[in-house]
Amino acid sequence: MPVDPRVRRHPPSSYHSSRNESHSRTMTISPPSRKKGRRLRRRSIVLIAMGVVVAVIATVVTVIAVNLPDDLEIGRLSQKSNLYATTSAGTPYLLASFYDQNRVEVAFDAISPFVKDAATSGEDPGFYDHGGVDIWGTVTGIVSTVFTGTARGGSSITQQYVKNVLVQKCEALTDETERADCYNTATEASPDRKLKEMSLAIGLEKKYSKDEILRQYLNITGFGGSVYGIEAAASYYFNTTAANLTLPQAASLVAIVNNPVKFQLDKPDSATNGVANGYADNKDRRDYILDAMLEHGKISQADHDAAINAPIEPTITEPSTGCQTAGGSAYFCDLVMQTLRNDPAFGADAETRLANVRLGGYNVYTTLDLDLQSAAETTMKANVPATYPGWDVGGVITSVEVGTGRVLDMAQNKDYSQDPAVQATGDNFSGINYNTDLGQGGSNGFQTGSTYKVFTLAEWLNEGHSLSESVSSRPRSNWGTFEDSCNGPQSYGAAFNPKNDSSSENGSYSSALQSTIQSINTGFIGMAKELDLCGIRKTAEAFGVHRADGNALEQGAASVLGTNEIAPLTMAAAYAGIANDGVTCTPILIDRITGPDGTEIPAPTSNCTQSVSTDVAAGMSYAMQRVMTSGTAAASYRATTPRVPMIGKTGTTDDNKDTWMSGASTKVATVVGVVNVSGDGQDQRTTYFDSGQAATARHRMWPDVMSVANEKYGGDSFTVPPRSMTR
Fold first, then answer.
1. Model confidence, pTM
2. Integer-rounded Cα radius of gyration of the chain
3. pLDDT digits over 532-583, tens only?
4. Where are the annotated coiled coils located (predicted)?
């Protein structure tokens, strides 16, 4: 067959064999060596070319990045806020914490050197040398992003910090759609986003020291779930602080940063990263970081080996979060949070306030008195069950400091939960705060019964009548026409036929003092007949009294007997106003607030106003002291020890569905009630709890709280009224 002239023919074997041995050996080895050399030269040329290309790309990237905007506005980090009460010793006691992100920002010196070295060695070995951007790593990341569509490593710690800052800005947005769009922009896999990130990183390095950037990075970064920042991570995963982390613990936490879902340590049942395999995924990353720390001279060989051999043993410590962790103080806690969301100190509008609350970082020191709160919780638990067959029973206790409006305790007979799923598990759960208004805790309030009569007494004295003056109090079916300067004269005909509690109260005439001591219904209707119904309503309003549902107070003749639904806290503040010589202070729950940077933020203040004259308040107190010593509240008075001068008034609604005991010393006012929350309710005089008759539970609870109050706060004599009021 023809021979292709392009094919090189081997020489005849005789030619080959005529060569000497060494030459033959040389000829046999030479061709492969030349090929290998050529391959090495070609590889070198390719590597040099790639280096040139990468260098050019790096130069271009740097030029572009440097010419992009580099001014990153660093906002406030989202942190948890803490609510405190103050113990008798003056130390703060944590009630609850709140956060969207569980974070506690700490100073550089409060972070273990192991953490800092682990972060730089594992994430960015050149951190202290470059100007904010790891050029080679970033170019690799950009090239990978271009070809794979997925953002890949290469980011310096400063760049990672920039990305976290941008994400945090998104988290602060209150609108869900805006937040999602912002997040997508901040995390999109694109060269453009990477270049902007680089530019901002370079700008940061011009403004902040390396240590400050590292500190902020360790405070902002996520450690899985809602855990953010090294301090919260140390507490959550190892029940320690960032300052006290050991070398293996520090490396394990820094490992989480690389991939929080894969490496977090709170999934003990995980097949790939759980107890059974020694948290294998985290350990692999942890040991890589330990190797890097050794390589870069951050730890000794001995420390490295000991840490490598150390088992990963997390101690998961759930943080206190939400009012449910405040136990019996949960409803007070809930009211504090409602206050923060509505107080102008936290922002001029609702959206700003919500954003501030979400960002957190506040320490809120409340007015709660732990001694009184403990007494209220204990006596409530002992005297009013959380549930009762056929009766949606409610129990309420709240106390207010006289002269300041500070709310000292708040308790009710239900277990707190705002989770509908939890509430569905039993009637013992409720998210409604029975002590407050509809807008503060979801309650429509309760009829106050005869505790409301004191406002008719106030108007009686205000109009110049005396306590000894008598009125027609004979029960009858037609009381004629009542004066009402707001709505015109009111006549109710035979339909209005109020009764008294016992036949001994059915005399033809009763004095204002006698009607107050014995709580005679017809006596107070007789007093109202000689007054202006509108004036009685305005006097009640002067003490801060208002309907819990936000509607105007009813002012018909029946309202004199306590038909308005009012929050117990409102009544406690009003009774404190009587005890304070007629000066009523609006309730407050917060003594002081510090912001994320430790500065004081103005707390809501109480507004104190003169509701009635000092003389009128003295006349009211004179009569209400006798209610305690010889009237319907005597049972509470006798059970209170130590005793100080005290005023009070009882209340019972129709068919004995709600029973009240409201009273005060010159230091503390307390309202206690057993109420029907919904439905038909029960006659409390024929209903018995384990502790005794339901109707008398108020006289077991009120003394328990006021005994503690009297022991702690004392009490002074009430102002003596002018003789013209009592003779």
1. 0.76
2. 39
3. 999 999 999 999 999 999 999 999 999 999 999 999 999 999 999 999 999 9
4. none
